[in-house]
Amino acid sequence: MAISTKSRTSKSTQLNLLSQSKANSNGAHNYDESKIKTLSSLEHIRLRTGMYIGRLGSGTDPDDGIYVLLKEVVDNAVDEFISGFGRKIDVAIEANRVGVRDYGRGIPLGKIVECVSVINTGAKYNDDVFQFSVGLNGVGTKAVNALSTDFRVVAYRDGKYAEARFERGELVAQKTGRTREPNGSLFAFTPDPEIFGDYDYNFEYVERRMWTYACLNSGLALVFNDQKFTSKRGLLDFLSREVDTSALYEPAYYKGQYLEFAFTHTSNYGENHFSFVNGQYTSDGGTHQSAFREGILKGVNEFYKKNYSGVDVRESINGAVAVKLKEPVFESQTKNKLGNTDVRAWIVAETRSAVVDFLHKNAAAAQKLQAKINHNEQLRKELNAVKKEAKEAARKVAIKIPHFKDCKYHKGDKKRGGESTIFITEGPSAAGSMVAARDVTTQAIFGLKGVPLNVFGKTKAAIYKNAELYNLMTALGIEDSVENLRFNRVVIATDADYDGFHIRNLLMTFFLNYFEELVTSGHVYILETPIFRVRNGRETRYCYSEKERDKAIAALRNPEITRFKGLGEISPSEFGQFIGPDTRLIKVGVRALSAIPNTLAFYMGKNTPDRRDYIVENLI
């Protein structure tokens, strides 16, 4: 039966009219000029905070937004020192209010409001004023201003001052006058709880950052809450503190006009590097770090007239590298990875030359380094035989990794690669709930069959002789190199009881013993799951502590209280929210690499009497 064009048009018109009628009735599709909004730059920062400072967080993670705000302000003060003005920076935090005072040139008095409230305004675009600055996009202090309940800035220049006060980015007061204060700038702000929620500064994180600033800027003094941080030997001080007494030889050190580095080897497994660009810690490395690694290999082979493998030269190495660039290109606003490709050649060449020079001048270090490389080579060949047997045994058991559910996207994928997460959990019941609740595109699950092997004091061959640890290593993709890690976040998800804590410690021992770079580069986390559920017929609250439980009991009428003894007791329908977008994760950090061996020895070694005495003395 034929349908005329007129008839089709009529039906289409009817459908369009019906659709428009429905849209107008609820206003959802009433798209006209009134719906177009123009936000001020500071309003946009508050609305889309993640674009400017990355994650928010509560202060439990050193990458949380409140530390980014502090860093943005201190960076400006450090830039003054780099430019040759001001040798001291005062930092104070009290009741979550932050104050930073530098003694540089001070913001030009007539531009003080624009410099902290108008995006793309600043002197960082002018090479004559700031040659090596991290903050090149004119956003830093504007973001701090917009994301603070109150923000105060004062500039002191040649006996005069200008002051401006803001509330959530809105200017509320200005004044000028004369002063006896030395030149410089003062910033004071309180991060907004409307944005950051219930937060607290962890002073240990701040102190570590101050120490890093000091090591990257020899001659600069930073005073945080009356504690002074200075360094005379730059990155050599930084690395010496990290490796302490575990260094096999006196660290190699070099400082040029644009490049500074230090490195040594230890008796630990893995490869650890701390890299910086214009004072910015690049936790994900980048072209400067890969060029530094290549330069070390070339320098070693040139000096010894050998063709050593990069694996053997870099195994157990600990290094720090800092470069100064006029136009750094970072891969995100949070500046975790350098993308400049033009720096590779000169960094490789300068590093190679400096390594050769160091080895010529330090015969004892050269001898110990070669012995370490030869030892690494011997261990690698022995390990290859064990690897072959392990892989053959694994192929006989199954083609796929047992108890492992992979996800679609992985670390490095442009689409959602940063969200890729693997949860390592205990037992089939917990794994079952998580598998049912997970997002299959970005969340993988690895279920442990039982209590993992305590690998403290064991060689890397132990991994290949233990099926579960071998499967875990394979699932993570780190057998050949930590750089091949398949997931951006490795999350330990164990029960909130003593058995769960023990398994957590065993997994941390596994990572720190063989793959400590996973931890130092910020990829390992602990999953927080609720201990209690308090609910009545109207509301359900999940509580992560007894304090939260008691608060919920007081708030709800006739509540029912459930104590979750294990993750398996949480149903899949409930579990989804605990591993969803609002997942509560605690990033695992390391105060200093040198502390790892002693820490592992105390908690995981054979000193049972010492641990027992410690428990008795600290038992609550």
Q: Secondary structure elements and their pairing?
A:
Elements: H1 5-26, H2 41-47, H3 49-53, H4 65-82, E1 88-94, E2 97-102, H5 112-117, H6 140-146, E3 148-157, E4 160-167, E5 170-178, E6 184-191, H7 193-196, H8 203-216, E7 221-224, E8 227-229, H9 235-243, E9 252-255, E10 259-265, E11 272-277, E12 280-281, H10 287-304, H11 310-314, E13 317-323, H12 344-361, H13 363-397, E14 404-405, E15 421-426, H14 427-437, E16 443-448, H15 461-464, H16 467-476, E17 489-493, H17 498-514, H18 516-520, E18 524-527, E19 532-535, E20 540-543, H19 546-555, E21 560-563, H20 572-575, E22 585-587, H21 596-604, H22 608-618
Parallel strand pairs: 1-7, 11-13, 15-16, 15-17, 17-18
Antiparallel strand pairs: 1-2, 2-6, 3-4, 3-6, 4-5, 7-8, 9-10, 10-13, 11-12, 14-16, 18-22, 19-20, 19-21
Helix pairs in contact: 2-6, 4-6, 8-9, 10-12, 17-21
Integer tally of domains: 4
**Percent helix:** 40-55%
Instruction: Work out the radius of gyration.
Output: 28 Å
What kind of sheet is the major sheet?
8 strands, mixed
The pLDDT mean sits at 84
Describe the structure.
The strands form 4 sheets. The chain has an 8-stranded mixed beta sheet. By secondary structure, it is of the alpha+beta class. The longest helix has about 35 residues, at about 365-395. It has 4 domains: about 50-230, Histidine kinase-like ATPase, C-terminal domain (Heat Shock Protein 90, 2-Layer Sandwich); about 235-380, Ribosomal Protein S5, domain 2 (2-Layer Sandwich); about 400-530 and about 570-590, Rossmann fold (3-Layer(aba) Sandwich), CATH 3.40.50; about 530-565, no CATH class. Helices cover about 40% and strands about 20% of the residues.
